[in-house]
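JOB MANIFEST
job_type = single_chain_structure
chain_count = 1
residues = 339
[input]
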Amino acid sequence: MELFTPILPEAANSLAMALVMSSQAPLLLLNENLTVMRASGSFCDAFGLDCDVIVGKKLNDLGSGEWGARQLRSLLFATIAGDADIHAYEMDLVRPGHETRCVLLNAHRLDYFDAEHVLIALAVTDITDARAAAKLKDDLVREKQVLLQELQHRVANSLQIIASVLMQSARRVQSEETRGHLRDAHHRVMSIAALQKQLAASKLGEVELRLYFTDLCRSIGASMISNHDRLTLAATVDESVVSADISVSLGLIVTELVINALKHAFPGRNQAGAITVEYASHGSSWSLMVGDDGVGIPVGDGSKPGLGTGIVDALAKQLGGTVTITDRAPGTLVSITHP
């Protein structure tokens, strides 16, 4: 084995070498020529090397030369010159007859005792298994997202089929009352179908209310408004994004209130008017309003128009909101507010 003169004062040299030899982490001590001064047992065990043999050898002579990568050598010489430190540098360690390993390198210049002679501490961590586990996790997450989106597409398609069956049944029945119930059921199903469409396009399981309410109003208007030049239905919504469960309740509330307005606010078949859906939020507070400029609340009618079976009341209560009905003269405004 080649003999060499210590490049640090004896005490400091001995301390540095002792620290490397006792390290539980894979660690090399190199001089300014990238010659191995000492190697920790954990380094030799991790990479199949003999500590007694590699001391005194150049870094690029270790193993089959896999440690002599040009970029690594350039970084180490830059560290020796004081121009850089190696922080978390990843490198593929390719060794003949061995599986390629991904290693994380950290190197620091040691010149505390003698500025004329420099040592480099090179720490090596094998992160192959960690990277493989992270990749597997990412792959599973992506696969789950793909399956979830596929499920949402299938649910949306199924809801469209159900809605079509309901509408066909409404056309066939003789009873006007039954026809009305079937049409209402159709619109509620379409409300959920529109929501599923938004969920399918979302990667986070959240719904953009502007797009959702716009599509929902377009769907209801297409099936219930015969003359769009005289009767309009529009949504004005801010940039709010809510979770899927909240959007379900909001969508059903909008559906119930819009259907109610279309049924009762404009009794004349050719009556002109407008129905508006508005939503805005600020922090945890929000407000949802559905208004029209129709005939308004009938005089002496103490009931809450448009609540029907109490769906709106129940959904608003579930959301922690309060329902308020206002006679706009002309028209009616129903507000659900969450303070």
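[summary]
Residues 60 and 128 are 22 Å apart (CA to CA).
The mean pLDDT is 81.
exit_status = 0
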